[in-house]
Design goal:
This protein has about 550 residues and is an alpha+beta fold. The chain folds into 2 domains: about 1-195 and about 375-554, Up-down Bundle (Na+/H+ antiporter like fold), CATH 1.20.1530; about 195-370, Regulator of K+ conductance, C-terminal domain (Alpha-Beta Plaits). It is about 60% helix and about 10% strand. It is built from 20 helices and 9 strands. The chain has a 5-stranded antiparallel β-sheet. The protein has a 4-stranded antiparallel β-sheet with strand order 6-9-7-8. The longest helix has about 60 residues, at about 60-120. The radius of gyration is 27 Å and the shape is elongated. The two termini are about 55 Å apart.
């Protein structure tokens, strides 16, 4: 009996580990069960936590807070690190497309909450908590509580409202996404497994028929058209394949294989001449069979001294007679432009003779085993910086007290910045995809288990309160209707695929559990990139808006 008491009942570090491990294991096992073809996956950990909390199981409050905080920080930082390499390119291409629906969702939910408060006679002080729970935004709840206390109002109603509506806020977004996919998503709206590659990079061949470039070198043409982004991978002259060195002179009827962006193909046709109709973007092309003179090979950057160097500084083309056409990074295919900063883990597509490629392989590394060692120093440095950034008070004119990005906002922003710019500072930020997924999963499981255990303590007794079911219904309406409405509009009015739409909906609702569901059901990184793009802005705006609601309507 003493043994059972030590493991499951008496508060201690051992008991906390045992309880959280049991909740996590049971939730993950049940999450594999499918009902009507639907599985909630890792989100089941949250519900097992609620049941355990309602059954009287508890752990030390400080340990609960620590595990919940550490799990959330670990998840959002690893997410930022994952999407960092493609974040700013996404902002340049789809940033406005992603932000407009996100802001519309934020505004729709806020207006709906105000209307429901006035129509149902629920006090606005209570409705602020319901809104925070429905949008799973605990930083906004903290801001609402502080503002209510400053104006002399009781904040207990807001706390209870958030605790009651938070669970349905978690699953409400998932249900809304299921409805969207079942009834409103067309097959063309779904991203393919190679969607990101096709979106960023396009391969085309051109026959040189423009008299204006006859006799000019590739370097001269590139300098004249510096505003166009392209890389010439191979060229055929009189039937012979050549490496397109910078001093190579173009002549009439030369054939150029060009790597560019989809939107630039028309401009390049004006530069070079006739675009051939052959499809070079087929995944099944065997590049080594195109000609017998050159070999195409992907080489992995594994030497730490290459990390953070510009591609042009290596002078690989001039010194070894090879050409680098594409760079694969974190699932994103990039143009191999001279100013591209290389990172550990990049995969370079190298074209040239076998002997020259072998020499380049020695320079870049291509030692897969060396990348299996985790670079944990950058992870902990990033977390420290993220927590510091999240704790900095930001004064907003007209607000009674400063705003903070918080435990979630700071780490995800720093994760994005380190993932993008770390290599330029010669920081080794590379983690394998499996290691990053492990960090994210571990963090999210800890967060969900603690969140459920904390909410479950008073969950069912709050439901049976006279206003409990009404609050529950209002919270679900605030979660479900705006997500479905804005999701439909985003799919119909923008050119975004469903992966990006689902990611921006999860980010706008600050819902990492829904994002995990999306990642399990949609291929590619589009959902995670969209989530990270809109999450910091929407989280910050919700903190401000909830304070305005208190000051204007309470």
């Amino acid at each position: 009996m003493e043994f059972i008491n030590t493991l499951f009942i008496e508060h201690s570090a051992l008991q906390a580990l045992v309880v959280l491990s049991i909740i996590s294991a049971m939730g993950l096992m049940l999450g594999k069960i499918r009902l009507f073809g639907i599985s909630l996956g890792i989100t089941f950990v949250f519900f097992i936590g609620i049941i355990a909390g309602n059954c009287g199981i508890s752990i030390d409050k400080q340990m609960l807070l620590y595990a919940e905080t550490f799990g959330l920080v670990l998840f959002v930082y690893a997410l930022g690190l994952q999407v960092g390499p493609g974040f700013f390119s996404s902002m340049r291409s789809d940033g406005i497309k992603l932000l407009i629906p996100s802001l519309a969702l934020l505004g729709t939910g806020t207006i709906l909450a105000i209307i429901l408060s006035l129509g149902s006679n629920v006090r606005m002080s209570d409705m602020t908590g319901i809104l925070c729970g429905a949008t799973t935004n605990t930083p906004a709840l903290a801001a609402a509580q502080q503002t209510l206390k400053q104006i002399g109002c009781d904040s207990n109603g807001a706390t209870l409202g958030c605790a009651l509506t938070y669970p349905l806020g978690v699953v409400g977004v998932i249900f809304a996404l299921i409805v969207l996919r079942k009834y409103f998503v067309r097959p063309t709206d779904l991203p393919g497994p190679d969607n990101k590659h096709k979106k960023n990079v396009f391969i085309a061949s051109y026959k040189v028929t423009n008299p204006g470039i006859f006799g000019k070198t590739i370097s001269e043409i590139a300098n004249i058209n510096s505003h166009n982004h392209f890389v010439i991978s191979r060229m055929w002259h009189n039937g012979h394949v050549l490496i397109p060195m910078s001093n190579r002179v173009l002549e009439k009827d030369d054939i150029l294989l060009v790597i560019t962006k989809p939107e630039e193909t028309g401009a390049l046709q004006l530069i070079f001449g006739e675009q051939e109709k052959k499809d070079w973007n087929n995944e099944n092309i065997d590049w080594n069979k195109i000609d017998s003179e050159l070999t195409s090979q992907r080489i992995l950057v594994t030497r730490p001294e290459i990390n953070g160097k510009k591609l042009s500084s290596l002078r690989l083309r001039n010194n070894y007679g090879i050409n680098i056409s594409r760079v694969y990074r974190s699932g994103v295919q990039l143009l191999a432009t001279p100013d591209l900063v290389l990172q550990l883990g990049d995969r370079l597509t190298v074209v040239g003779e076998a002997g020259d490629i072998k020499r380049v392989e020695n320079i870049l590394g291509n030692a897969v085993k060396s990348l299996n060692e985790p670079n944990l120093v950058s992870v902990f440095i990033g977390i420290i910086l993220g927590l510091i950034i999240g704790s900095i008070p930001l004064s907003i004119p007209g607000m009674s007290f400063p705003i903070k990005l918080g435990l979630a906002g700071g780490p995800i922003i720093v994760g994005i910045l380190i993932g993008t710019f770390g290599p330029r500072l010669h920081m080794i930020t590379y983690t394998t995809q499996s290691a990053n997924m492990m960090l994210r999963a571990l963090g999210l499981i800890l967060y969900l288990a603690c969140l459920g255990l904390d909410a479950g303590e008073h969950f069912f007794e709050t439901i049976v309160r006279p206003e409990g079911l009404l609050w529950l219904a209002l919270g679900f309406i605030i979660t479900f209707i705006p997500v479905v409405l804005i999701g439909i509009l985003a799919l119909r009015k923008t050119k975004l695929d469903f992966g990006s739409v689902a990611g921006l909906l999860c980010g706008s609702m600050a819902n990492p559990m829904a994002l995990n569901y999306v990642n399990e059901t949609i291929e590619g990184d589009n959902p995670a990139v969209a989530y990270a793009t809109v999450y910091p802005i929407c989280m910050f705006l919700r903190v401000i808006i909830i304070q305005l609601m208190v000051m204007l309507f309470v």
